[in-house]
Amino acid sequence: MERNDFNPRMVTLARESAGLTQSSLAHLAGISQGLISKIENGFEVPQENILGALAHSCDVPPDFFFQSDELLGDGLVDFYHKKRLTLPVKPLKKANALANVRRLEAIRLLRTLEFDSVVRFPVCAPDEEWAPEAAAQMVRATWRVPPGPMPNLVALVEATGVPVFIADLGHEKLSAICMPGIAGKHVIVLNEMLPPSARRFALAHELGHLVMHNGYASEDMERDADAFASALLMPAYEIRRELQGLKFRDLGQLKMRWRVSMAALIKRAQDLGAISERQCRTFFMQLSKMPGGRKRESGEFEPENPRLMRHLIEYYERELGYSRAEIAKLMVLKEERLMECYLGEDPRKVRSITPQRRLHVVPALEA
Fold it and tell me: What is the pLDDT of residue 130?
């Protein structure tokens, strides 16, 4: 990358994805906050030593600041996120930046690969308005999901070539973020703070945004995305009979069968008329009195973990002959972070160990 390709927006992106303020970055880099401000606003181009200090402080390679790719989410307009009105600005900025970084890393791997048999990502036409229930039925039909509980939702989404990430989004009220990309290059980031049942619902919620809203915001989009998630995970025509005469003691078994939270089951039962509003309030009061309450319900199942990015990295390494240093350079991240975040390895323990050859399978190519 040429020195005149310096992109000041990438300094802001690196800083916010690391959860740093201008003053904290200035302290770590040993420079003034005023200089940081001038650099981010394009009034100063940092010298090589300052560039290195900024990169080290944000845990990115210096090449990170020379990327020219388009960023999404400025002003929180171009991407969808599930948040509460009380969510502080700082974790929202961090989450937005983190999603942008993950999106750039994924795009760099995906742009040079061709998927011949990718499962189609279902999207409602821009000139059509789909009700959440109908949109959820369309998705299940497109993916040929059999009747009953939804299978591994992470695997189904990633089979379309859309990577799913699990990361610390900085605040439990921010359940997930999705970024609609060009030509279906979407990215979904789920909050690792959530228990598996809540994380699965959050993924279905973000999927609803990408399927129904297709780059456009609306006043009811959050409510519609919740309704879509409920309909996708608990289809009315299948679950209604199981919710008739619902008792609180039934919720644990239903949770394991449908792989949704007890809170989601209670809400779905009320929406379908299986229980009254009064019963709904009583169930929620009982749920709140349980150990962990509504935030940490008992009886969680095993989480659904993403695999697409790891398989893509292994494909570059095993089939295309890339070294890990070259893959890290392609993704514009440090090799240590590639190993830790994407391969689940401790760089300190495996630095001198030659990795064993493993059978490579890309889920997206199997579908």
Answer: 83
